[in-house]
Amino acid sequence: MINKKVSIEESKAYPLAEKRFIQTCGFNMETEKHQRMMKMGKKVRDDGVEGINIQALVSFYGPEVCKAGTITVGDVELTCNYFEQIPAESVEGVYFYMLTAGECYFSSEENIMDFLYADIWGTNYVDAGIELLTEEYIKNDMAERFGGKQLYLSEEFGPGYFGMPVIETKKFFKIMDGGLINVRVKDSGLMIPQKTCAGLYVVLNRSDIKAEPECMRCHGNASGCQFCAVRAKLNEVKQ
Predict the structure, then answer these.
(1) Backbone angles phi, psi at 77, to 5 degrees
(2) pLDDT (tens digit, 9 = 90+) per residue, 118-159?
(3) How far is Cα 217 from Cα 160, in angstroms, rounded to an integer?
(4) Structural domain tally of the chain?
(5) Environment class of residue 145 by beta-carbon count within 10 Å: exposed (0-12), middle (13-18) or buried (19+)?
(6) 98, 181 in Cβ contact below 8 A?
(7) Which terminus of the chain has a smaller tally of CB atoms within 10 A, N or C?
(8) Which CATH number covers residue 132?
(9) Which of 155, 156, 168 shows the shortest CA–CA distance to 209?
(10) Considering only CA atoms, which of 84, 110, 80 is closest in space to residue 226?
(11) What's the predicted TM-score (pTM) here?
(12) What range does the domain containing 136 cover?
């Protein structure tokens, strides 16, 4: 399965996006003030919802792409310090994904709150789209592909977290055809539309391979995870 296109209806993503919007804004919906602010936020969403178009690509590769702490597809090599922590024999495959939510348009560039709310809605639609893509497509495909075998998805790896450089985004466009969902990447690694993300899941046959929360914010260490000060402290606590 390479460059499989998946469309997600806005109406299906909306309840998840709305829940995230409330959490992101820190609204207490029992107060009148926050109810008024939420009403303003909903109007921004209603005015700009025509720009929301959630499209995704998914590609699956077998375990042979994982070796020596890297993931290599053809001549494209992805590096991430945490890959060193995943034993090759525990890998059953890799799912790559790319997803865009389009843009939540807003009516006035002079109204900073409209701009802020539109930006938050866009981000929340991306997050909602990823959740639906993972739960309703990738996991279903994994169940069909591997039958009744007990398998697990890793954390989401991607440019900008778990020590993977943002510039690696360009490599995802060599593995997947972003043009199929009208997405492109700049030389800096910035994706257009901005409400777009790319990443991967490793399919594992073990449930005990888990990254520490601190690993997600890792900026990378040229010496690898074995020389990570945070990891050393966590090991001391465990002992």
Answers:
(1) -115, 120
(2) 999 999 999 999 999 999 999 999 999 998 789 999 989 988
(3) 8
(4) 1
(5) middle
(6) yes
(7) C
(8) 3.40.109.40
(9) 155
(10) 84
(11) 0.86
(12) 4-238
Write out pLDDT tens, residues 76-110.
Answer: 999 887 888 888 899 999 999 999 998 877 655 56
Distance in angstroms (rounded) separating the CA atoms of residues 31 and 72: 52
Q: Mapping DSSP to helix (H, G, I), strand (E, B) and coil, where does residue 66 land?
A: strand
Question: Roughly what angle, to the nearest 10 degrees, separates helices 112-132 and 32-48?
Answer: 80
Instruction: Evaluate whether 85 touches 46 at the Cβ level (below 8 Å).
Output: no
Of the candidates 236, 49, 79, the one whose C-alpha atom is nearest the C-alpha of residue 157 is 79
CA torsion 135-140-141-146 (nearest 10°) is 120
DSSP, collapsed to helix, strand or coil, labels residue 190 as coil
